């Protein structure tokens, strides 16, 4: 293993942290309702816990309404129960054919809370990135201990690892800032 492999390892893992952050952001509610607010809802389907989108068609009808049409009518009650238990802030309306979720327009407080959650998600991503930096530096130290790298190469490697880390932390800050702006925009 050499320094370039350490850098590649670091970048790969930090990119995964960025992807995880973007997925986390999708669960946040903004002014326009998104079906991703239902991503963490599981329905008891023939005795196994199944994601909602695997037992029904889920679509955003407009900015405040989500329509859920089960593929089998008999799971309608289970879907309703799962939505109520998920406590996503709306009650399901069952018309016999489909379930409609009507999300009220977000209040300023709700927008602020979502922005706060986005910031917390960003902090979680930064922690993951810093942990990856520590792993990369540990790999470099091991290479030095195994006499693969000289002291100068170790210093150079640690400087590069920190530079990569700083770039990813900056990216997280930008993503959080964009998400906050999106969430706070009325």
Topology:
Elements: H1 3-26, E1 42-45, E2 48-51, E3 56-60, E4 65-70, H2 76-86, E5 93-94, E6 99-102, H3 108-145, H4 151-184
Antiparallel strand pairs: 1-2, 3-4, 4-6, 5-6
Explain this structure.
The chain is α+β, with helices and mostly antiparallel strands and 186 residues long. Helices cover 58% and strands 13% of the residues. It has helices spanning 3-26, 76-86, 108-145, 151-184; strands at residues 42-45, 48-51, 56-60, 65-70, 93-94, 99-102. The protein has a four-stranded antiparallel β-sheet with strand order 3-4-6-5, with helices on one face. The longest helix has 38 residues, at 108-145. The chain is elongated and about 70 Å long. The N and C termini lie far apart (51 Å). The model has no long low-confidence stretch (mean pLDDT 90).
Question: What would the keywords be for this entry?
Answer:
alpha+beta, Topoisomerase I, Chain A, domain 4, Gyrase A, domain 2, four-stranded antiparallel beta sheet, two-stranded antiparallel ribbon, 4 helices, elongated
Structure described in brief:
With 186 residues, the protein is an alpha+beta fold.
Shape: elongated
CATH class of the largest domain: Mainly Alpha
Distance between the termini: 51 Å
CATH superfamily of the largest domain: Ribosome-recycling factor
Q: Summarize the biggest pleated sheet.
A: 4 strands, antiparallel
Radius of gyration over C-alpha positions, nearest whole angstrom: 22 Å
User: For the residues shown, what is the average pLDDT?
Assistant: 90
